[in-house]
Please model this.
Amino acid sequence: MPKLKVSLITGRTINQGRGKEMGKLSKEYLESVVICQIDPNDMKFLGVKENTNVKVITDFGSVVLKAVKSARAPHPKIVFIPYGPWASFIMNPKTHGTGMSSLKGIPAEVEPAPNEKVLSLQNLLNQFRKERR
Amino acid sequence: MDIAIKNGKIVKKVNAKKAKIIDALGMTVMPGGVDIHSHIAGAEVNSGRLLRPEDHVNDVEVKTALTRSGVGYSIPSTFTTGYRYSRMGYTTIMNPSMPPLEARHTHEELDDTPMVDKATYPLLGDWWFVLEHLRDDLIEECAAHIAWMMTATKGYAIKIVNPGGLESWSFGRNVQNLDDPVPNFNVTPREILRGLCKINKLLNLPHTIHVHTNNLGKPGNYVTALETMKCVEDLAEGNRPVIHITHCQFCAYKGSDWRTLSSGAEEIAKYVNHHDHVTLDMGQVIFTDTTTMTADGPFQYGLYNLTGNKWVNHDVETETTSGIVPFRYKRKSSVHATQWSIGLELALLVKDPWKIYMTTDHPNGGPFTAYPKIIAWLMSQVARKKTLSKISKRARRKSLLPSIDREFSFYEIAVVTRAGQAKALGLTQKGHLGIGADADVAVFNVNPEQVDASKKYKTVRRAFKKAVYTIKGGEIVVKDGQIVKPVFGKTFWIDVKTSLPMEVNDDLKRKFREYWTVEYENYPIPESFLHVPAQISVKAEI
Amino acid sequence: MTVITGVTCPVCGTFCDDIELVVKDNVIIDVRNACAMGAAKFLSYAAHRSLKPLVRKNGELVEASMDEAVEKAAKILVDAAYPILYGWSNTSCEAIRVGLELAEEVGGVIDNTSTVCHGPSILSVQDVGIASCTLGQLRHRADLIFYWASNPWSAHPRHIERYTMFSEGRFQKSTWRGYLSRLSGGLSRKRLQRAVNLVLRRDIFTTPEVKRRMPYSMFQKKRKMVVVDVRKTRTAEAADYFLQVEPNKDYELLQAMRMLIRDEELDVDEVAGVPVETLEEVADIMVGCELGVFFFGLGLTMSEGKHRNVDAALHLTRDLNQRTKFLIMPMRGHFNVTGVNIVFTWQTGYPYAIDFSHGYPRYNPGETSVIDILNRDEADASLIVASDPVAHFPRKTVQNLVKNPLIAIDPEVSPTTLLADVVFPSAFVGIEAEGTAYRMDHVPLPLKKIVEPPKTCLSDEEILRKILQKVHKMRRNQN
Model:
């Protein structure tokens, strides 16, 4: 299976911004934050089509997201995920003494995941709940 | 002599059996201290706090059962500011620099500054409405706008900083003298000063215009200071002052550059001794690490270039600018030591203590907590000599201090730290202990009849550091230098009653969206926004 | 039906105050002047909310009375040795003031969301200072506008219209018309390209050649906009010029610019993926402007180098002031994130990451900041106000947050409230409760109360005050 080493960026999108104001449980919000914007040429390389699933892997975990063609290509080997629970799941917690974890320019790998599902919010949160004291 | 207090006021007498009696025999009793010019709240001060964690880290106030925690040093947090003033027997503080657009911020901080009454001066000298109206010589219309602004921002007096220079700084320039026209507006600093001085009279504001001169902090600027005083000379009536030149030390420099810097105190004092329309405050320099902050953007930029220190600049649309630079006054620097000398020379050479008041322009010359040091210098030639012996040789040679043998009495100290300031501010119920005055009283552990302050200046300094009692509004709030009762203070604001507000308001409304980026209705602060508002109504002559 | 004007928009740091709302029977039925985010908030804020306090019992969140919830929350805080109080950028200054008193009372750590957004910018300001202004100053005067690593089109949708390119100032005119004609030109060019692609059977997504030459508009004497970013954002498309910087290379680019404006030579052909000739042209334009401004976003603070990137940007601005007037401003995200820094600072001297465990404020980001405390697993309880750290902190950090007692005050249901032990659904400040907040340029504005909140929903300020009173009482009884 093809794998692509990328630089991962997280950030705000207008849909995510709009969605969060409609409520963190709204369909609009949840749909807006489970996507991964990829350069069309990189998608070709990975052999994934729009709206099929990819797995994004960092040193801190992996998460399955929906691949979306970036509307503002070219940005080869840069992928973008909107802020949200899914993006946070694979972020680097280290702050290097600044108080802030790294949220942009994280080394990551992307691979197609046609048979895996995007985790629902409930399931994502359940992963934390298991750890409660 | 007994002082009777009831319901927060000084009264003729009270029932001695029922009253709580404070025995102040052998101590100095004064009205609560009044500070006419101290940057304690608002956008500028707070940016200074944010800029300087290193200023706070070694000077902390621990939370107690009664008081909130906080930090110092040169720009203390709000609660700490209130406590420290109160511990020194101060009860009324004037915050001299408020960008009108950010007035809410100033008032939020003043609300969180306990223990003292306070008020704040909106910066109006470079407001577009003022520049345009004075250019067109529309004094009455301009006055109506100022009246609106005073009420809208809950302000107390007209503050003018480097008139014309701030608008110029918005494009990175400055004005050079009183007749240098402001770019794009074609009005001169002289016209601004005269216009606002006339307006101040028309509106019957309790204080005069409060002026930070052009060319502040530049060698040779005593000429500008003198011209500034002269330019409103003809507007005076009787012996009532019409202009207050603030932190005068910073504009009393002779010389053509920093090397040739010397004192212009003699010339300024001479002028002030012969004219009654001017009052001054010192802006005394203390040898310490402090934080300079003024609305004078170009001056602060110059200071940043001089020092290479970190620098904050904050320009406010259509109104003003500001800047912040940390600064250390060093004894061994001839410039800094000369500045130190000039402040004291001014206070000692101006004969009438009712014309010059003790300030450090906190925190520009040093933090207000240094006031006891200044009192010692003013009261004792020995104290002055001691410091003189430690400063830069060149500054010592130039200093006029060795030739001055005047030493302030306790009475004169009371004038320059409270009575004179209250009078200049038009705060009739402050600064004295007469019947009907606010019961703001400070008691210091020094016997004015026995202690020779000239020799025992250390005793005096120690006494003024910590009041034995501070009484605020009739309540004992400090005992033996400790806060025993936290209180809010009042915020004075001026409600100007004019007879022609309506049409001016329409003009203002029309221009509002053009000039600012906020809506007209969101600009004025309602009185309910203030914690303890104290409205002072004045009737304008328009 | 009533129309309420001059409403401030409690969403982003642009904090527009010209919103008009149409209200009927205590419901907002129409919104004017707002962007998509603002409109969504005013129209659908109440779609997903719970109305009653919730307390976790046997693993499930169940409804409880206000008193019970307050009691439980106060007990959690009083029992904790090192609680964290986090959030605050989406509530009023009035609530923040109570929050600080509460943090001091329980000897905890209080931190706000700037710790994970512009915290590094603040660290840089503390090193270098900052030359800034209010936004109107730029509307009236700025003729060169940089958006560096920020994307206002998506994150601050009305920023360009209200304060920069498309706003009308006293000394600078709006460039809106020019943009429209460029836009239609661009659209027809795209259409043409698509047709050509179809005919030639080329892939539509073939990388077009990146334009290196500066467009003519950059040399005209009018307002100009430059975007620097790692990817071509919507904002970049509206700009006169787009500089694409390689990821994590902003620092190099900024330092190179500093050299250029000091008239030094660069002995390389390219910096951060940008040819030096291009940089020289940009530097020339910067030096030649009347008043320039950098708006910078999280692209600087969140990528490699963090506060060092901002250091470089602040230094560049300082240097530029030797040649012309140049200012810089961070693009703050939440509507009151600026306010929270301001209130923290006036009460404690420090803008965020404040530790009260010694009885006085201590500040040492990296040690007293909430992510670090959680990463080290030191906190034993937390109070989250108007924020959603579960959604936005890294996984390991969240694990250490949610394994201890967690109190949430939030008008909305969020991943954080779903995992909390005590939940206070509050009134929406700026819609159902009033207060004060600060725009990104430090201008304070009132938050308004437009409609009545549900009876069971108090404001953040009122809830915090109740908890504070309870804590006072419990601690008095303890002593």
Summary: The radius of gyration of chain A is 15 Å.
